[in-house]
Amino acid sequence: MYEISRLKNGVVVATAEMPHMASTSLGVWVGVGGRYEPSPSNGMCHFIEHMLFKGTQKRTAREISAAVEGIGGYLNAFTGEESTCFYSRASHEQFARVLEVIMDMFLNSRFAPDDIEKERGVVKEEIAMYLDQPHQHVQELLNETMWPGHPLGRPLTGTPKTLDDFTRKKVIEYQQSNYNARTTVITAAGNVRHRELVKAVAHYARYFPEGKRPTFLPADVAQDKPRIKLFTKATEQMQIAMGFRLCSRHDDRRFALRVLNAILGDNMSSRLFQSLREDHGLAYSVHSSVHFLEDTGVLTISAGLDDDNLAKALELIRRELRCCVSTLPTVKELRQARDYLIGQLDLTLENTENHMMWLGDHLLGYGKVHSRADIAKRVGVVTAAQVRAVAREFLKPERLSVAMVSPLKDDRIVSRAVAAGFS
After folding, report:
1. Does a structural domain hold residue 288?
2. pLDDT the model gives residue 222
3. What is the model's pTM?
4. Cβ count near 213 (within 10 Å)
5. Mean pLDDT, range 380-399, rounded to an integer
6. Residue 395 belongs to domain with CATH number
7. Which of 271, 268, 286, 423 is nearest to 333 (CA)?
8. Of 17, 49, 81, 144, which is the active-site residue?
9. Active site residue 126
10. What percent of the chain has pLDDT over 70?
């Protein structure tokens, strides 16, 4: 159901035709994100994401939002480590209008000095908001701990210091260098025709600047022992995040790692949730997740705890990690984990926005689109031995980093737990 075309100047256009749907979701993707930024430009991609909503040569910021919301649609954007996306969903009858609005933002943003100054303050408030949310703050601390001195360890929002150095000239130069035909992918899903979209995009693509794909610093940060970072703060509940470095999105072991994650902590049936919350009542929130990038990945375990429960919770987490390393998952666990992942995949691809995201993620991440059937097949043949093998390979202390936001003034409890290992 996917069709992909590349225009002469390099812009990629992809569609998932779903003619039975009333809506169409559109995404304009740029293959650049936080890890592409040199240190002085930390937060630039996120700042440009904000600025594209602040006004163009023909629309004010209010008129941009009204142009889409006024027809019953919505408009949003996000910045990640390796991509930035501007997206919208609206009635398929309004698709041409939505495309024109996003292209206007993309090609004709004003970057007015007054708007830059105001948005600088807005982003600083966003940074302050995250610092006031321990479950968000601990994730940034974990990244900083896992990737010290590397772009992956810096906050996507930047810092007040880097934001203060963003002049209009610097912002425009960065945008023009990176938002070009070679880095742009346009995806649409829903009641849309591929041929019509290609024709419509070609009208705007001729205005895209020429350029080349940027490069990033490889994630080859050396580590030979666990790293621990504690941020002491008066909180009602401490937050802890543990991260194990994994392989990249291109490694076939990622399928076994996804199954391992489903067994370990991805849902309410998982071992961590059942142990820490259901059996012992130590945490309201406990969860694990996997995230893969171009040249690395991470398995994260996160929990919110009372300080008095930290030692017990860490022992239970260690017990479950040891079990993953030493013991094959049961036949029932393996079947449920695979069925869960395939079922979640099917639910994800039920709506137009997720299909649009699927296209953009795959084209920027792999250069092609994997079908639902291919992914389901790869997950469905993961064996118990493969799950244990990736646990043994990646759940090692020398791959582990831990971050905490807590009233505690030292990390002795965590240090003792980590030193005991998982084998």
Report:
1. yes
2. 86
3. 0.95
4. 12
5. 97
6. 3.30.830.10
7. 271
8. 49
9. no
10. 100
